[in-house]
Specification:
This protein is an alpha+beta fold. It has four helices and four strands.
Amino acid sequence: MEEFLKEIKRQAGQAAEELLEKARLSRGDILVVGCSSSEVAGERIGTASSLKTAEAVFEGIYKAALEKGIYLAAQCCEHLNRAIIIERELAARERIPSKDSFTPSYPRLRRETVMVDMSMGRSGERTPGNSRVP
């Protein structure tokens, strides 16, 4: 299990680095991530939720975002009304009241949303990637 989690963290970090590069995000931008720990583990969404898997994904993505000065936001599942959890510093910047390190929020999505084709497919398989970034 430990090796699996290390590999998930590595792949999540690699995918985040590629995404940040292709999307051309700048310091201070926000990367919103929503994923299923069940799907990461190769199961059907909502059937094998795992805090340890989620932590491995978070650690990989957060490290890549932190190195670039990008804020990380996490989109919750439908059970939490798909709220977006943001960092306290970002909440202060956007003037959203916050009591915790991460705070549930419903920020206004802007038109700067970018679609990106990634070279990493399911289970870490490499696939031909064509960026749709303008």
